[in-house]
């Protein structure tokens, strides 16, 4: 949206002169734009801390660290060796943590 910077702007005195009816109308316009959300659907995907997950199964195949990978000693994520930034005290550091 283009803005015309040559038009007169309202001063503080002009802003205080807005009618009460106009202010109420603006407030009602803002409050009528609500989103219809199903509370049950929103709560269905929510996991609470300490929830019992003992009957859940892991659905992702986990591979051990490969020979061309390293574990960053700053963020403890496994990265490919091309992401090696440097070694600090003999511990590998990734590019994200080293930058």
UniProtKB/TrEMBL annotation:
Pfam families: DUF4193. InterPro entries: DUF4193. This is dUTPase.
């Amino acid at each position: 949206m283009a803005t015309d910077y040559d038009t007169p702007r309202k001063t503080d005195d002009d802003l205080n002169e807005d009618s009460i009816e106009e202010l109420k109308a603006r407030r009602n316009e803002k409050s009528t734009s609500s989103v219809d959300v199903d509370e049950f659907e929103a709560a269905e995907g929510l996991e609470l801390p300490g929830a019992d997950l003992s009957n859940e199964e892991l659905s992702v195949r986990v591979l051990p660290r490969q020979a061309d990978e390293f574990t960053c000693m700053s963020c403890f994520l496994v990265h490919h060796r091309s992401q090696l930034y440097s070694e600090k005290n003999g511990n590998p550091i990734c590019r994200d943590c080293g930058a």
